[in-house]
Write a structure and sequence with these properties.
Elements: E1 3-4, H1 25-32, E2 37-41, E3 47-48, E4 63-67, E5 71-80, E6 92-99, E7 104-109, E8 112-113, E9 122-130, E10 133-140
Antiparallel strand pairs: 1-8, 2-3, 2-4, 5-6, 5-9, 6-7, 9-10
Bound molecules: zinc ion.
The site of zinc ion has 8 residues, from loops.
């Protein structure tokens, strides 16, 4: 069994942090509040992530931030054994999560037995501080 995701290992100096932009600011501010926001097109109802100025489905510009349940399933994943930088603890799980609203995001699975990770696992968002940002990551639901 190998468990990854001790929060003290996810907030070490030298680990990369996302750069907040005017466009992505509502998403990052919500993460600090423990909320997962996603843009939704008010014309065609598509969920848009990562943040955009226009809908990637219909090109409409009426995008609004809405709250996601943060519940989803594991759509795809890989286990990383070779760190991109020495600050990364390995192995870790890089995952594409399918949120229950039907949109996808790239993230990590934390506090999990890596040997038990499989496509279709139910997941729940959790929020992990790193520097002055808070990153949305996922735990296995019910664990
Ligand atoms: Zn649209």
């Amino acid at each position: 069994m190998s468990t990854w995701g001790d929060p003290s290992l996810l907030d070490k100096p030298g680990l990369p942090v996302p750069r907040e932009t005017e466009l992505s600011k509502p998403h990052w501010e919500a993460c600090r509040r423990g909320e997962l926001l996603v843009q939704q097109c008010q014309d065609c109802s598509a969920y848009i992530f990562t943040p955009e100025f226009a809908c990637t489905q219909c090109l409409g510009d009426r995008l609004e931030w809405v709250t996601s349940s943060g519940k989803g399933t594991l759509y795809s994943f890989t286990v990383i054994h070779r760190p991109q930088r020495p600050e990364f603890e390995v192995p870790y799980v890089a995952a594409i999560v399918e949120l229950e609203e039907g949109w996808h995001m790239l993230s990590n699975i934390v506090d999990c037995d890596i040997d038990k990770v499989q496509v279709g696992l139910p997941l729940q968002v959790c929020f992990v501080p790193r520097g002055d940002v808070v990153l949305p990551m996922f735990k296995i639901a019910g664990d």
